[in-house]
Design goal:
Residues 440-466 are annotated as: Disordered. By secondary structure, this protein is α+β, with helices and mostly antiparallel strands. Helices cover 11% and strands 28% of the residues. The longest helix is centred in the first third of the chain and has 15 residues, at 174-188.
Length: 753
């Protein structure tokens, strides 16, 4: 049963009218004087804002008051909520679900009602955090795994690498059985799950453990026959008997789902689960015919901080991961369908727009540095938005990638064979890098031409194995366009096989036709009026590329800009099948004195019935609460200061009214966690959220350990002062008992009963 806790919770205005006027803070804790706030009286979730770690403009404090109130700050290992609210743990890692268990790092949530105050809660399980997972596995799950033995073997390898191609090991090799055991358990803790819940007469939520409760894990189908299915053109690729690369000989049957991050919910009651960072477990890039690299391209790796290549030992084909999975929670025999017309890339979410008499429109983003925004349009139209046969519409259609223009306009480019090749120039990209599909090597002359595309001073990362090109100079794009004219030139096979290969390689294909490189798009949510809201988490660059510097700029046009944005996209004429759109940035992360709105790295969104936006943040765990003693680098340049923003948090952004587009802090998460997947019940009197990876860096908080750190903080007007902050080391959430293991969990938030 759930654990109930009361904490001060931020006023997250759930209405689109009303004003906020704050005059003072009630000390240096997490509470704001209730009398200083005008609440939204007609909202089920009216509340008073809580105090975060830095001054915010809506609080209305004078400069001297800001320095006084924020000079000391205490971080708490708990989910901090506004006065008058409480949370209840619904399920946590290790709890029983059907014939399996509740997985690790719960993410996207979807509540599908099947009666008054009862229904199915669909939960994604994204990945395992190696430090706390290894440290607490035996204590939580009740059995041991050979972690120490395996670490010792890998450490003794003469190569000095903590990796091994387990797939190629002989069956009688002792280490192989140990790797398989650990990988199986790690993949069981990923995927998605369905749990049945209801609200009791006392106002608490409880699990009912119905026959529909089940898990779809990373190894579903491996031994139990519960394969996932697939639709769309990529099925032809899966069914190949031979090809350029690796074929698993399972045809259209798919083993498992993992990397399940955000998602979406359809009007007909199914849930869409997005496979995101699948490249950690299996090879990502593919050959020109859409077939996978050999499993050896992503060997099993194990060290103190990570466990990767979990698909290696099972011979999983990389091209079968990175899709959108549809599941009907009410059907206990449904173990998921991957719809390949929605494209294969690092999916983060699905925005669903359904109107009777029109095709379906599904929006999604690829969460990587330089990832794109996509729209799928079905071939046929919707008759009844609530008819479950609408799922069949996902089997035929077209996938488009967004092309943003700096003037606030944009267009959709179809990912099909006759679309012209027109990549962006590296000079327009933060980091000056764009990755493109290599295409088929037709003859030696063509091979020499393609070799000339590579910068002799640059090397392909080992994980790519030469199946994509790293382009760093504008003249290389000119050469690329001389070799390849249309998208079909980059892929091989029959026309339908080429379309399948394009969808399998969607990210690279989208780069080839000029899809805008963006700033790690995380969520795509449709507002009641049809507007699409998109979160872009980080404007930095990396080995995958970076965002278009003409689009993704800080408040003073700075690039790279780390703290992220929320964008609103409007289809022209508000028509979901429009080929053009307009866009605007409605919220920018960063500190108020620099033009930011007080949050950093926006992630999942939730839009209430009034059209207002609720948002959670995704500051990388390794940056949370890092001390900031100086605001400049050794070279005198401004530096990224993610540590000042404290723990990851929940925000509310009213879209209209006097306080429009002024984010307000709603909640603060436990130590080293990320809050994800917020969703409401239909009445909007309960909010479900996932608390993911508490204690991800330091694991168990022992003996209530904490540190005192110093931070150079700015007032909202730019005056610097020193804050002393107490920071717990590790986590004991949700038990909050000293030395107890941290466990990812799903909670229900509501007003005190």
């Amino acid at each position: 049963m759930g654990i109930t806790s009361r904490r001060h919770f931020l006023l997250w205005m759930a209405g689109s009218t009303g004003a906020l006027a704050l005059s003072s803070l009630a000390g240096c804790n997490n509470k704001i004087d209730q009398n200083s706030v005008k609440q939204i009286q007609n909202a089920a979730f009216s509340f008073n804002p809580i105090n975060g770690p830095i001054p915010l403009e809506p609080l209305g404090l004078k400069e001297s008051q800001q320095q006084e109130k924020y000079r000391n700050y205490k971080v708490v290992d708990d989910l901090i909520l506004p006065e008058g609210y409480e949370y209840q743990v619904i399920a946590a890692w290790g709890d029983k679900v059907g014939d399996s268990r509740f997985g690790y790092n719960n993410d996207y949530l979807s509540f599908i009602p099947n009666g008054d105050d009862e229904g199915y809660l669909s939960v994604n399980f994204e990945y395992i955090s190696a430090v706390p997972w290894v440290q607490t596995y035996e204590q939580v799950i009740g059995k041991s795994l050979p972690f120490a033995e395996l670490q010792a073997v890998l450490k003794d390898k003469s190569s000095g690498e903590n990796e091994v191609n387990a797939y190629a090991l002989p069956d009688d090799e002792p280490i192989k059985a140990k790797i398989e055991e650990i990988c199986a358990e790690a993949l069981i803790d990923q995927g998605l799950g369905i749990i049945s819940i209801r609200k009791t007469a006392s106002g608490k939520w409880e699990r009912t453990n119905s026959s529909s409760d089940r898990r779809i894990s990373g190894i579903s189908g491996l031994k139990d026959g519960r394969y996932l299915k697939a639709t769309g053109p990529a099925v032809e690729i899966f069914q190949k008997k031979e090809g350029q690369g690796y074929i698993d000989n399972l045809g259209d049957r798919i083993i498992g789902s993992f990397g399940n991050c955000a998602g979406g919910t359809t009007p007909w009651g199914t849930v869409l689960s997005a496979e995101e960072n699948f490249q950690i477990q299996v090879p990502e890039t593919v050959y020109a015919d859409g077939t996978s690299l050999d499993p050896s391209a992503k060997p099993f790796g194990f060290n103190k901080k990570s466990i990767s290549g979990q698909g290696n030992i099972f011979g999983l084909a990389g091209n079968k991961y990175g899709w959108i999975v549809e599941v009907d929670p009410a059907n206990p025999n449904d173990y998921g369908t991957k719809h390949t017309w929605l494209g294969r890339y690092r999916h983060e979410a699905v925005g669903v727009r359904v109107e009777a008499g029109k095709p379906l429109a599904f929006y999604s983003g690829c969460d990587r540095k330089g990832g794109h925004i996509y729209k799928f349009i079905s071939k046929d139209t919707v008759r009844d938005p609530k008819d479950k046969s609408n799922s069949q519409l996902l089997s035929q259609g077209m996938l488009y990638v967004a092309k943003f223009a700096a003037d606030g306009t944009g267009r959709w480019i179809p990912l099909k064979s006759d679309t012209e090749i027109e990549p962006d120039l590296p000079s327009n990209i933060v980091g000056n890098l764009i990755r493109l599909p290599k295409g088929p090597l037709i003859n030696s002359d063509k091979q020499r031409e393609k070799q000339a595309l590579s910068n002799s001073s640059e090397k392909l990362p080992e994980t790519s194995k030469g199946t994509d090109l790293l382009v760093t100079r504008d003249e290389q794009i000119t050469k690329y366009k001389q070799i390849f004219k249309t998208l079909g030139d980059l892929y091989t096979g029959t026309p339908s096989e080429k379309q399948g290969a394009i969808l399998v390689d969607a990210h690279y294909a989208a780069s080839a036709v000029g899809g805008t490189c963006t700033a790690r798009p995380e969520d795509t949510e449709i507002a009641p009026n049809g507007d699409l809201f998109i979160t872009f988490t980080s404007g930095s660059s990396g080995e995958d590329g970076g965002p278009d510097a003409r689009i993704f700029k800080g408040p003073s046009s700075e690039t790279p800009y780390e703290y992220g944005w929320v964008m609103r996209l409007k289809e022209d004429s508000n028509d979901l099948v429009a080929n053009t759109f307009r866009w605007e940035i409605v919220a920018t992360g960063g500190e108020p004195n620099d033009g930011g709105m007080g949050f950093a790295n926006p992630d999942n969104l939730l839009i209430d019935r009034q059209g207002n936006v609720w948002m959670v943040t995704d500051i990388s765990t390794g940056k949370l609460n890092n001390a900031v003693k100086s605001r400049t680098s050794n070279r005198g340049e401004p530096k990224t200061v993610s540590g000042v923003f404290g723990n990851n948090s929940i925000w509310y952004i009213p879209i209209s009214g006097e306080g429009a587009l002024k984010p307000l802090l709603f909640g603060i998460g436990p130590m080293e966690c990320e809050i994800t997947g917020p969703c409401f019940t239909p009445q909007e009197d309960t909010m479900f959220v996932s608390v993911q990876h508490p204690g991800e860096i330091n694991g168990i908080r022992n003996n209530q350990a904490s540190e005192t750190r110093e931070y150079a903080i700015y007032t909202t007007t730019g005056q610097e002062f020193v804050q002393t902050r107490t920071v717990p080391i590790g986590s004991n959430w949700p038990s909050k008992k000293s030395d107890f293991p941290p466990r990812p969990a799903v909670v229900a938030i509501g007003k005190l009963s």
